[in-house]
């Protein structure tokens, strides 16, 4: 709420005030009379469920959207922010949930894009390079300035985005879900970077779903629910349980409820899988053999960039194998096309929901039947789509999985929040009733209520006698959801563990390559 009138607190305390902001889209009020106040030099967390209006509110502050009502003040003075250039001129920078980088440009070119120094029509990169490297050194943001964006890890892409803000001397920094794509180690690095930035007087707005991060790094937290303001609390005076109840409107269970697994016959059998790397001469995946049985959740854990992505590409048919075999229900699918794998019972929740999960400019209902539109349920004998059936099918999944969208089945996928895009993919893949469910980072960017639901769905698939292969960077998820853990390091399986018997510290040593050859009973 507005803090004017509380004794000594004055307008001068605030770097930014968003007062009574209302933003509407077709069929939805994304922000309904929201007030948010950011103090100078503080880290202020913005918490809410998927689709609560957090990213929309920050996009209003950054000039990507214009509000229908309300005003923005900087240092107590009303300002007009018509576009991101106005925001930059006011010292406001933003790292978006889905990075805004030119993939075929270098790191350095992305950082200086739009504010290049030229002389006689030629780019002057030497001074820019010095400034970027000085900022990189000062804030611990290690980057390779000449590397192409398409060749670097998501962690380095994010460091590039942060350096873009610092290069422009931004004083107000917006981080939209900054840890959603980072490894645990990178998250800790980012937390310390944020603290350093705040200590230097920069003011940070930090959108996240992760309550542990809010408790660790923020000074205050504002909670939104379904587009409305719920409250602002001092972080030191609250608990994760209180925050989650404010966010979802009910108490949330942080423990995954599941009985002991009862593994059955082998559903997935991989022998000697090798996948070439596009980045270097070594193989991305090297001679991996493993099995998944019905009625178990097998998790591949590891630090990002150790071959998990290429492993899933090889398994799902997105990349060819250099050598090795894959069998699904005893049938060799090593060279099978993607559609055949899907029809044989393989479902895939992909790592990159925009690149491999959705057609962003299709409606939600068309995305829901992407892999099934040719089935008699959705296409008649003449080859025409049964649009009514597709519409009602999408309506059922939207309701069942609580996919929030402004216009229901006809909502464009692009216009939905990242978390609701993820829920749409999960609904589609689980409803196919697969024999094998491959879930790659399934809860990335989801709120605690949605995470609780997705974990229960994975366990339900297991209990229905399906095989579940989970690839996760979240150690809490790995420990709580899996029945068996395989650690991947530099493209090889270096250990197999029972989550009931292994510690997080032990797993961390294998993930970092400090130990190899771990057995289930260690």
Structural write-up:
The protein is an alpha/beta fold and 522 residues long. The chain folds into three domains: 1-91 and 171-251, Rossmann fold; 101-168, no CATH class; 294-305 and 335-511, 3-Layer(aba) Sandwich (Rossmann fold), CATH 3.40.50. It is 32% helix and 25% strand. It has helices spanning 54-61, 84-89, 107-112, 125-139, 154-167, 184-199, 211-217, 240-248, 308-316, 338-343, 353-357, 364-368, 387-400, 418-431, 448-463, 475-481, 504-511, and strands at residues 14-25, 28-39, 43-48, 69-74, 77-79, 92-95, 118-119, 122-123, 172-176, 203-207, 220-225, 228-234, 266-276, 283-293, 296-301, 323-328, 331-332, 346-349, 436-440, 467-472, 484-489, 492-497. The strands form five sheets. A six-stranded mixed β-sheet has the order 6-9-10-3-11-12, sandwiched between helices. It has a six-stranded mixed β-sheet with strand order 18-19-20-15-21-22, with helices on both faces. The chain starts with 13 loop residues before the first strand and ends in an 11-residue tail after the last helix. Residues 1-11 have low confidence and may be disordered.
